[in-house]
Amino acid sequence: MKKLLLILMLACFFKANAQIENPNYDSKLAESLGGDDYGMKMYVLAILKTGSNNVEDKEKLNTLFRGHMDNITRLAKEGKLIVAGPLSKNDKNYRGIFILNVKTIEEANQLLNTDPAIKEKVFDVETFQWYGSAALPEYLKTHEKIEKKKH
Asked: Domain YCII-related: where (predicted)?
């Protein structure tokens, strides 16, 4: 009797934890965004840190930061950069993050090396593969509608 009760309890547990099909699933949208069965996909997370090159020439530094911002805009328009933004001051010297819409660290490094501030070592970068929602790129369409001022 105890075995039967244990089997019934296990069956109920597994049934309660079973995955169910999503009635709102849009296979075409999921495929267009590269989503797996969970609506997720791989990206590369890049953490920008204070680099080894302490540029003191204000004009050069401004040029590098303008190039940095222009590069962010270009990569976002190409669909390669999904998230970018600065971090508040911290004891790790982390300055900002990027989430790149690529699958490998190698692809990310190629894109990161197009940034003049990274090339000139104003920023150093740490990269990690990151598994997140395949819908992440869709927020950019909404952001454009709420962005009052452009960089």
From this structure: 46-130
- Over pLDDT 90: what percentage of the chain? 67
Rounded distance between C-alpha atoms, residue 46 and residue 108, angstroms:
8
pLDDT classification of 140: cutoffs 50, 70, 90: confident
pLDDT over 70 (residue 3): no
Domain 35-144 is classified in which CATH homologous superfamily? Dimeric alpha+beta barrel (3.30.70.1060)
Distance separating alpha carbons of residues 112 and 95, to the nearest angstrom: 15
- What is the average pLDDT score of the chain? 89
Residue 49: phi and psi, rounded to 5, are -125, 160
Check residue 82 and give left, alpha or beta (phi > 0: left; psi -120 to 50: alpha).
Answer: alpha
- Residue 146 to residue 139: CA distance in whole angstroms: 11
User: 28 is written with which tokens?
Assistant: 């075409």
Give the domain ranges of the chain.
35-144
